């Protein structure tokens, strides 16, 4: 762009005079404020210039120079980059520069104005063509449209210095920059033009910073301030040299020249000012300084270069600011360091700072900002992966987006890929799951050319089949219906995968596709028929594949290659068995064939043990009747355990010789009889002949019998016999089928003779088996079987208790699960029926009688002894060093307490302490289970809240008296107290109690007051005093009077000032609320006066005595209470946002617009005020 400092020049002889008059008029209007007031000015035409005008047009003319808006004509090919202006000479200023006459323009500058269309043919735009000068003949008034017919258009070769816009003052530039509709590019160009004219830049720098400071002291994200910041960034970045696009030789020459050149003075000045300001005490100044540095660095070209010293100074300053107290400052500092990081440098300070922020920053928006700008490297990738498990939904969502955009699937390990999919597809947030399905998976498929089978190769489906299945179903949901069957080209004409080309990946894809189509119901039935054969054909295919699975010997199992082949075959077999659920088994012939194949495979000894459970499950699904199920499985178990075998027997030689001699004798007698018959016939002794004939028939029959006996003795070498097999593999197969049968049976189906026979012949003998796997499966079968029969449960409960305490860990856990299931189903009444014939009274819950082991009064009662032993066993398991056993026990106790089978305050206290214990920090399953249990348990009923209230003081005492060496000494007592107070709030109940006069917090307040009265000087008094202010007390007068009396006593005895202020404040609140009961009852949010209670008259001495305290607990009296997790999150979000109030009710759009207009910040009054003062 040409430098707009040229003057008017033309072909007229008087053009120099025109230049002088134009500049004079410019100065005149500038002094009078005309330039800022309008876009035009008038200069009287002197005699030398008027003499150059056409004849008859020499007197009283006026030169008008008007600068219009950017050309808006669509016909103008240069409308986006032209400057519209019009120069008119005449007696009147009667037009508006709005209409573009550049319809036929080719390039350059458009001539705009309200000239008539007839003049459009003469007007033209060209960078090399002269502008137009319109001359008015004569004077007169009138509208512009009527008078323009008298104007002539003259061509003048001139260039004009547009001072009205190009050389605006700094003050005006900052005023106009606040308006969002102003074109900041024009403002930048105008201000830059003025800057380039100045010889001494110092005054400009000082004035620029002076006006910039007005914006930098505002922390609130006002639109006017943001516009000014953007303008400043664009203006400063405009001095950055444009990126070079010349050839290599030119680049080398410029690089040599750049070695001697420094950065632009204004850029250096603004950076120095911002770097000096980043240490200001005002957080607003620090925020704006970091924001400007971020925008300046972001506005530079990709190949821009800055001085090394400046780079280091910016780097050091931003490293300090990323640890700022205010989250918004940290966000801008982190964003500013985006272009300063060096991923290839393992010791890059920026990368290290980013990783530290991702790990430790408490503000979610700061973590999101770092995620958005951190460069991917082997160092940062694990940190980004960890953010996919962040506590905040937005952080997790952004982490998956960053991984999808910046990380190639090959850069991740198999475990990382599987972990990302497993966590993302099961995330609690719908938006996170949507990002995984719509961003991460398509990005991976795009990098694999859309090959889904190749994606499965990258996931190792043999070890993560379920995750791969969910991934495929997520992909299928985004596929059009017509594309679902495009990848079925792997199927042959039988609609099955050929055995020579079947792999783990394509068989899993086949299964996922069929299950997805089946889940679509009638819509996918037609497509399912194209992807799966009929039941009989598939049964034959499955049978052939299962029989082809090799069976390895012990020596072959030592060969890893052979073992891997067999494991792959077994995995494929599992997927093929799963496909049975997609078959259409409504047709009788196909269903019978599938049943026959399943029974044959279960009875076949060569079938792998890993397939037995799945085969049994699919078999039982096809058999709806329980009795038929039992009979079928029992027959298969009998065939497996007692197969029919052929026993060989030796041939008796003596018997064989005797049979041969007997046969010879018969043959001789037959020959003799036949000879005698012939003789009798010859002698015509027919009576004798008839007798001989009968004798011959008898001898022949006897001969045939002897022949049969000889043949039978020779063929009966093998004999079928039943031999019982007791090897561990066979027993495990039988127990697996039995366990699957008991699991699939209806819980109301009672055990019959067949189940009893299996119990006596298979399950109970295997309890004492030497093989651990056999014993474990036997315990599982025993526990499942006892659920179907209360008599069996009473008989074998003691055996399960013994196993839970004596056997291996895995078997103990199985027995513990069985015991908990029995107690959940039958309750503790089962114990009383087991020990004696007495049962609990129907009006009183047995768990209330036997819940707490320490409250058992009658030690000689057998049922209570058993209940006590069970609870003692549970308590010991909670202290176990085996995490699996501890977790299973905690889950079992949570189930029993939630279902009302146990109601024990001490047991609940144990669970609370276990949840907070640092020892269980790595036990994610335990903490998740208990965290959900506490909320559900307290919200379920008021009786549960009473248990929580009873556990309050025991829990606090345990923490207060924990020795310094105990892990419980690290637990924050304030946080525990807050949890228990929140759990006992009446407002959290799902179904509030009908008795509105009772409040759990009233009991809690009385207990704490009594505890404080026992020892007013104890350190925990401060904790109790602060907790009292968080309770929801009743509105009942008697309760308030009693609490007032207790508080008055405490005020007289407590000496600690902090406690005293808290107690006096609560006392005043009670008194005021009593006087203004009606006003407070109308309020919806009162922290102290919500519910009523009748139990405030309870004697505070009823609480147990406080145990002795350790000396280390003196520190518990300090400081305020630690905010809860929920409170932390809210305070955290407040810190990152602008400090403005958020309305409770969403206002209308009109109200929000009006409020926004009122709250808009305008820097003009401040600037004008400063100007007036100066």
From TrEMBL:
Location of the protein in the cell: Chromosome
Biased composition (Basic residues): 1103-1112
Span list, region Disordered: 241-263, 837-860, 1091-1174
Keyword Glycoprotein attributed: no
Main localization of the protein described in the UniProt heading: nucleus
Biased composition (Acidic residues): 245-263
Pfam family, one: Cnd3
Protein origin, superkingdom: Eukaryota
PANTHER family tied to this protein: CONDENSIN COMPLEX SUBUNIT 3, CONDENSIN COMPLEX SUBUNIT 3-RELATED
Residue stretches of biased makeup (Low complexity): 837-846
Keywords: Cell cycle, Cell division, Chromosome, Coiled coil, DNA condensation, Mitosis
Protein name as it appears in the record: Nuclear condensin complex subunit 3 C-terminal domain-containing protein
InterPro entries for the chain: ARM-like (IPR011989), ARM-type_fold (IPR016024), CND3 (IPR027165), Cnd3_C (IPR025977)
Domain Nuclear condensin complex subunit 3 C-terminal residue range list: 733-1033
Coiled coil location: 689-716, 1033-1080
